[in-house]
Amino acid sequence: MKGFLIDLDGTLYRGHEPIPHADSFIRWLQQHRMPYLLVTNNSSRTPEQVAEHLLELGIEVPAAAVYTSSQAAAKYLTEQRGGSRVHMVGEAGLRIALEASGFAIDGTTPPDYVVQGIDRSFSYEKLTEAVRHVKAGATYVLTNPDRMLPSDGGLMPGAGSLAASITAASGVEPVVIGKPSPIIMAYAIERLGLPAADVWVIGDNVYTDIRGGVVSGCRTALVLTGVATADNVHEQVASAGVTPDLVCDDLAHFIAQFSAFDRS
Ligand SMILES: [Mg+2]
């Protein structure tokens, strides 16, 4: 039995456009009853919101098949047992994941953790507050390190760019949860219930998806439908210093190559 950890943006869709063969790939997984999780660094949406967005694009998955960096951050905090008070810099997906795990957000006492994701209303005041808590000893946790994100109107700064300002001001580097961190990878592999060697990581980003898969002992497949393309793939693989097991034009090409790879 093989399991699959599949990226979202650039792999199943681009913004509001489904990527060709994404829907048939998900049906192929479901028909063969192969365990899979859709793993996203995006901390702003809940699994339910991700599943709704996919449904609008013609891809039907249960919310339980979605695993976000916010869920992984909440699980990480739970395992640390370092207290329950959180100062959050982020959006609804992060807030809901933290509250669901029993964390008290922004109480009147100093926080045990500063947990930061993307926050599209980030401000000088929010920066100041987060930096003061980190300097006072709160553990600084970052949902995902992405510095730039694709959006409909072009690239926009991601959680990693906000983190750079908090780190510059506080002198403290965060604990990073999202891909390529082995933290989210280990939790996702654990959810699949398979040994890492039987898990394929599929994504469009060499620096996050493929590196995360390689450091976690998984098989990896790079699809050329997002950050990596036929034009830049050689340059990106060389600069990332990690090599995917398979390079695929798209997910239909993955199925064809996977079947051959699995028999060998
Ligand atoms: Mg992607």
TrEMBL record:
Q: What is the enzyme's class at the highest EC level?
A: hydrolase
Instruction: Recite the UniProt keywords alphabetically.
Output: Hydrolase, Magnesium, Metal-binding
InterPro entries per the UniProt record, alphabetical: HAD-like_sf, HAD-SF_hydro_IIA, HAD-SF_hydro_IIA_hyp1, HAD_sf
Give the EC number(s) listed in the UniProt record: 3.1.3.-
Keyword Hydrolase tagged = yes
Q: Which cofactor does it need?
A: Mg(2+)
Superkingdom, taxonomy of origin: Bacteria
Q: Name one GO molecular function term.
A: hydrolase activity
Membership in a protein family: Belongs to the HAD-like hydrolase superfamily. NagD family.
**Annotated PANTHER family:** 4-NITROPHENYLPHOSPHATASE-RELATED, HALOACID DEHALOGENASE-LIKE HYDROLASE DOMAIN-CONTAINING PROTEIN 2
State what protein this is by name: Acid sugar phosphatase
**Species:** Paenibacillus aceris
